[in-house]
Design goal:
The protein has three helices and no strands. The protein is mainly α.
Amino acid sequence: MPRTRKTRTSSAKRRRLKKRSMILLPHNYVLITIGVLAVVIGYSIMRIENEVDGFLSLYIAPILILGGYLEIIYAILWRNTTRTDSTPDSAQ
């Protein structure tokens, strides 16, 4: 039985998927964890003080929460940009 074009295409897709690396690197997961911890600590501080006009719940906790969310966004968008080319910059 001859192979159909559909079979060859699907096997080629499988090979490409095997070569594909992870979307996020371990460094990204560390940054995401730090951001999640900052958000959890910010909400915990807000709950522990339990006052509307308290210094911690009015100033410190929102800064921690906002910083945590920004850290998570940065961690998702971060890519390693190291150059791997070995050509010299200029040949004079």
